[in-house]
């Protein structure tokens, strides 16, 4: 049973008081919905559903993006599902996602309202903020730091952290697992650029905060499925009251969300007090705060914390999970690895590591970056958007308050658009020694749409470029061997969830030569 399905079921199951009232409400509601549907135009097609429950049982039990793509073969690229009067619209083609979420962004830039988000305080994170003044302010500040012309100032840190990553990959091979290695890389890069933390304060503690907060985040990130969303007054009942067990979960998630927001901030404040904080996004923003006093200063400080934590929260595990999938792709496709290394040998040569200035001369590496983003897209359903007003698309009605999901994974794994979608093939975007996307660039899809499009997209791609090129320049990535010395086959198995990871796989790492190994600085 899918998260949404089981949670909605449990909503029904856990409601034990006033069943008759609820039934009357449902019947009245059903009559009202049928009448409204008849008079106000049709919703986009979708499974027919059943009385009362609507499409509750149609929500996919297994990996939803694949199931939505299958559904779209029957009903078309825009499908609708309705549960208790809430319309969910799933967009399964780039055309529909761009038409609705991008071209009509003025109407679709809100996020679904959620009492659980309010209760947990998760709305400090930009990605969950409702559309409005606070969202605009936080987003503007983040964009100023990560638009294409601002990226140059971050590159020295990205390079240093990338070199450290190479060293740890080799030195800690077999001691620290690869998912943790990639998390350390992105965590350290962000904590330096965003918070200005000195090297000695880089702790796995912040990574653990991120991992610990994932369950609660996943729950609030998808449309929230708690009974309190239907009956808001339940939030005022004590947690010992029958049926209020969910409140304990919410309280745990609140603590985890607070820790993710506050821990790097506290570490930065401590480092500042010791005079050890480095110039960073945080120090630049706090300079502005230091000119203010009283309440105004307090409010501004909260905003700065929301900015810095939003970047750390959104930009660490997404990058790490994507880079992890790159390693998997290289083990499965040694021919891609060899072709990339030939390009690196020709352009960069044996005497140095790749630099950002090499990027335009490394089209095959750039094609790999695009294919990594597509092949294992880590945010398969993106973030939900919310229709602020009623709308019409291709003659269908999109009611005000509809929750709109772009099936990013489905769009990027549609065999009609990307033949043999499960095969990792950078050649999809590589022709005659150039990157040619022919309108198929995954980077225009994976980062979402419209006014809510990921503000870290250029920075994310920059990080992937430097790390992918550096790893391939120095190392051969190989499957692990079993006891009899045979390579262990690697299978890319994805996990379901708001952030999709690849399940762990074993690997070996081998320096391409002594000269290549010697390129990794040991004094960083
Ligand atoms: C491979 C890496 C990444 C992927 C696949 C990714 C994907 C996404 C997606 C799908 C969204 C939702 C867009 C929408 O609502 O339509 C998003 C939002 C966001 N991303 Fe990223 N992202 C990545 C890296 C980053 C990085 C490095 C940063 C920070 C520098 C970042 C910061 C954010 C923020 C703050 C939002 C919320 C934007 C808003 O709601 O207005 N992301 N990202």
Automatic annotation (TrEMBL):
It is a single-pass membrane protein. Belongs to the cytochrome P450 family. InterPro entries: Cyt_P450, Cyt_P450_CS, Cyt_P450_E_grp-I, Cyt_P450_sf, Cytochrome_P450_fung. The chain crosses the membrane at residues 12-35. GO terms for cellular component: membrane. It holds the Pfam family p450. Coiled coil: none annotated. GO terms for molecular function: heme binding; iron ion binding; monooxygenase activity; oxidoreductase activity, acting on paired donors, with incorporation or reduction of molecular oxygen. Its main location: membrane. Keywords: Heme, Iron, Membrane, Metal-binding, Monooxygenase, Oxidoreductase, Transmembrane, Transmembrane helix. This is Cytochrome P450.
